[in-house]
Design goal:
By secondary structure, the chain is α+β, with helices and mostly antiparallel strands. The protein has 2 domains: about 300 residues, FAD/NAD(P)-binding domain (3-Layer(bba) Sandwich), CATH 3.50.50.60; about 90 residues, 2-Layer Sandwich (D-Amino Acid Oxidase, Chain A, domain 2). It is built from 11 helices and 21 strands. A hairpin with a 4-residue loop joins strand 9 and strand 10. The protein is globular. The two termini are about 25 Å apart. It binds flavin-adenine dinucleotide. The site of flavin-adenine dinucleotide has 32 residues, from helix 1, strand 3, strand 13 and helix 8.
């Protein structure tokens, strides 16, 4: 890592969360000649194996694993604390026997994906950025940007003006960079909060992820490698507030009931945290010499565990478009490259956002003909091998037009 005494880069990334850091690592790893700068004003606490499980975890798809591998970060993550899951069981109502279960075996894969702490992913990516000689990591916010015909000039904290061929906004759902570059968003609040905690259950999880749909929102059990479980319980704002107030015993009982005691009683819980949930998408992903990735471009409900996985696919697609242009001696920040990236990712992300939103809405309706139709659909999907395979491969990030670095 250099400490940026020079001011010119090929690529400047505003935001060193999981997505922005992955883009920096992937581009700098795949092309040692390309100069990359990541701006991150709030360096995270380093992850330590001595720490309790982080409350923020992500179900990382096989495609995301490939992106992290090509970015040079997966081997560190895998050497620390990851939890492969090989089955997923989803149900609604009071009959867990009437469920939809998918397994990695059906598609000949060792697992469907891994549960990984967000702080571990970020630590691995930061370590990688620090070891790459062509990457700079600056603890500064992006404060201004001005696109000229041949370059974009960026103002960052105490570092003054820096020029690059392309600026990328990876600064999350509230992206200041997106606003600065004049890109609009549409979105809506789910009027829900996701309550997260790490729990222990009476029965072993056997590497299975569980999700039960309830009228207030779904509760997910994500299996951890030490036998614990990370829960994500999306609930109405009032009910989430009540859950946050409960003492430990009552909270564990509430989680047990909500999961229909699928793994028996809850015998331990960590402290809890709650996150407001909304859907949001940028109406355009690009402006002159500027592109959006990750939550800055799209924010989806966590019920399908797709948010950061979509972000990693953005990373792989943008890196491919950018580096192909560099290899061919073309300008990697010109409008042709940016159009190609936007065409590639915007439709796929919108389709996933709509699908996730639709599933959430569908499961909220408890009366009338819809619940019957829903159960019929679930039964049909349960019995149709081809449809099942397509569904599983999509969830693993292996459907659609897959960028080359999202393939192992
Ligand atoms: C409860 C919950 C559960 C989830 N579970 C899953 C899951 O299982 N699987 C999954 O795929 N997704 C999941 N997600 C979604 C996932 O967490 C997000 O999609 C992901 O964290 C977004 O990463 P990001 O890097 O795009 O944005 P962020 O994590 O928001 O990072 C943005 C970064 O930009 C920095 N920044 C801000 N302003 C500036 C500036 N002006 N200049 C420079 N930098 C700036 C910030 O400090 C931050 O580090 C979940 C989300 C929630 C809420």
């Amino acid at each position: 890592m250099t400490t940026a005494s020079h001011s010119d880069f090929d690529l400047i990334i505003a935001g060193g969360g999981m997505v922005g850091s992955a883009l920096g690592c992937l581009v700098a790893s795949q092309s040692p000649a390309v100069r990359v700068c990541v701006l991150e004003p709030h360096p995270p606490q380093p992850w330590s194996p001595e720490d309790a499980w982080g409350l923020r975890v992500s179900a990382i798809s096989r495609a995301s694993q490939a992106v992290l591998k090509h970015a040079g970060a997966w081997s560190f993550i895998a050497s620390q604390r990851i939890s492969g899951y090989s089955r997923m069981t989803v149900w609604e109502g009071d009959n867990p026997a009437r469920n939809l279960t998918f397994s990695a075996e059906e598609v000949g894969a060792p697992e469907l994906g891994h549960i990984v702490e967000n702080s571990l992913v970020q630590s691995a990516l930061r370590r990688r950025l620090e070891e790459l000689p062509n990457a700079s990591l600056l603890a500064a916010p992006l404060e201004g940007a001005d696109a000229a015909p041949d370059e974009v000039v960026v103002m960052a904290g105490g570092y003054g003006a820096m020029a690059a061929k392309l600026l990328v906004g990876a600064d999350g759902a509230g992206s200041a960079t997106r606003n600065m570059m004049g890109l609009d968003t549409r979105g809506w609040s789910y009027r829900q909060r996701a309550v997260v905690a790490t729990i222990r259950t009476e029965l072993p999880h056997e590497d299975t992820a569980f999700q039960r749909f309830l009228p207030g929102g779904p509760i997910a059990f994500l299996p951890l490698c030490d036998g614990g479980i990370s829960i994500v319980w999306s609930n109405t704002e009032d009910d989430a507030a009540r859950l946050m107030e409960l003492d430990e015993a009552d909270f564990m009982l509430a989680v047990g009931k909500a999961s229909d005691f699928v793994l028996g009683e809850i015998i331990h819980t960590s402290p809890r945290a709650a996150f407001p949930l909304r859907a949001q998408y940028a109406t355009r992903y690009t402006a002159p010499r500027f592109a959006l990735v990750g939550d800055a471009a799209h924010t989806v409900h966590p019920l399908a565990g797709q948010g950061v996985n979509l972000g990693f696919l953005d990373v792989a697609a943008l890196a491919q478009v950018f580096l192909d242009a560099m290899d061919q001696g073309r300008d990697p920040g010109d409008s042709g490259c940016l159009r190609k990236y936007e065409r590639w990712r915007k439709g796929e992300n919108l389709a996933m956002l709509a699908a996730v939103d639709g599933i959430g809405r569908m499961y909220k309706i408890g009366t009338g003909p819809l619940p019957l139709l829903r159960r019929l659909g679930v039964d049909l999907l349960g019995r149709a091998p081809l449809a099942r395979e397509i569904f599983i491969r999509r969830a693993m990030g292996l459907g659609g037009d897959i960028p080359r670095w999202a393939i192992d």
